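Please study the protein below:
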Amino acid sequence: MSALSAPHTASPISVWRPIATDTFLVGAPHYPEHVGEDYWERDAERMAAAGFNVTRLAEFAWHILEPRQGVFDFDLFDRAIEGLGRHGVKTILCTPTATPPRWLTVAHPEILRVDVTGRPMSHGTRQHCDTASPVFREHSRRITKAMAEHYRDNPHVVGWQTDNELNTSMPESYSAATLSEFQHFLREKYGSIERLNAVWGGDFWATAYDDFEQIVLPMNFVPAFPSPGHVQDYHRFLAFATARFQHDQVEILRATNPGWFVFHNLGGIRDIDFRGPFSTDLDFAGYDIYPFLYDEFFRQGSPAKAQAIHLDICRGFSGNYIVPEQQSGFGSQPGFCTLTPEPGEMRRMALSSVARGADGLMFFRWRPAHFGAEIYWMGLVDHDDVPRHRYEEARRFAGEMTALKHKILGTHVRMDVGIAGSDFDNQEAHGTYPIGLPSPQDDGIQLYLHCYDRGVACGFIHPEDDLSPLKVLYVPHWVMWKDDWTKRIEAFAEAGGTVVIGARTGTRDENNHVIRETAPGASLTRLTGVVVEDFGRLAAPGAGGLFEVMSRSGGLVQPPNRPAESARRKRRFTLGNHELEAGHFYENLTIVGEGVEVLATWSNRYAEGRPMATSRRVGKGRVVYLGTYLTPELTQVLTDRLFADADVTPLVPDLPEGVEVTMRQNADRRLLFAQNCTNEGQTVAGVAPGRNLLDGEKRHAGTLRLEPYGCAIIEIG
């Protein structure tokens, strides 16, 4: 197995960045401590027979590795690693800090997280300790150092995963340690209490402080709402503390063996500023993918769409990644369970991950546990120790990826349409003052799903990234805006790109203060040629009004049998030959620049005839300003108008429903990935001529037949 690039030689973070490797990592997380040792040799033999080259160990085993403070016992994992290594299966070790042992929480109960009600978290679960705690950080460094030094020269250990899915269970903490560290963070950030008071707006509701020791942690409904600046800085602190906690570990690992690669397996991106310090410590990102779980929780239309959304959002933060945990079967904890992938579907989901940027993948998990809180989280081998269709699908996938690694590695995912994303401050700024509106990410998903259904290459990208491969960029109401971003999107437009700027963009500064000039601010006004004269909220499509929105978040409740006034105040607009209803928000625009074309006007109530959307030619391209939020109907009409001019076309015309297409490419090759996400055969017409790398490199010239859950990788040309 070749080494991956070290951090100091890795290219800067970018959505277009592949992992610097010639090895496609494929395997499964494994927990030898969950079964008797008589299983181990058979497990290693089966992994090798499946074509696996790696496994992941020890993420929840601190109590085994250090049964008493300062007493270390590596024997179990030494023997497991050696047995796997004899069969050619390398090991990724994990720092086991997501599950500290009971002796530690007994000795130091102050390291436990505390929820907003003041209740300390408890042993008997996971992620119950506070990563901001200096005491917990010290013990994290101890176990990391002991493990690193013990395995420093072990030839079977090739890399490390830090912790496990940081912040997925509970990113917030209201402990004494968090408060003290938060106060210190603010002192370092602002220097003087006067500066902090100015930034947080201390003259509103007498929320000013006399010194940093007086500062409290922000809580809602105690009895009202805290300052958005206060809340924003709290979440910035949580992201800082998470990155610092990880850095403690990475620093030790790098110093011990610079040849190891290091990554983290994100289960979400809550209070993690991935484009900030968190990422600079890592060789690449890992994203855990459970399509059926996401679809159950987020109702995104189908497991396939849920998987695509999560992976493409994540890739916007990091570029290519590995999947350390790919759902393999039925998944559950006591309070929920998922549907079960049908035969063929697990491989299809794995290939969808590769299609969207995975340069390595591990199926979760090798075998299910017989005890604990995930006894029905199924793996590749069943409870009765019998490998069935999931094992066979994993074996087939491993063989395919090993054979095709020279084609896949080194490519990035194509995007013709980019949605501005991957910005910690803007997503958090929305959360500090949501007022019932969709987040930037949720609004962008409207456009994303439209493109997904039509086979248009679309994803998420940060404005500081290279925009030149795009044809269209949509900015979904980023309230915090930097003038440098204006320069970048202007250059993109001048070179021929189409920029669409959503309502409310640029209306607050970095301190979460509303700007003191007419929206959207000086630089965006110069670029768009419009200003916002006034604005207001509209009912969400299908919603009754403000009270209904608030009731879903535990606030006020709409009285029964009383229609909301906002439901009656519907706003309509005309775009081309279409009259549509607006949702969520409206802005009335005034043209102040030259060369501005009105694309849409409000068509009812007092604003009838006022501009709602405009377009201005900028160099070879254009900049569109949109004075509302996206709805499915608006997205359809707007893209019909803009995509043709921008030369945005589907990867495959007339894509059948339930078929997903993406493309990975570089300067040398183009690989069209097609996955049938249904249980019925599908015929896909209009496919560019090429060789199907998953079908003996047979040549296809126009029409592709996909079996139920069938997949193809067409090398075009």
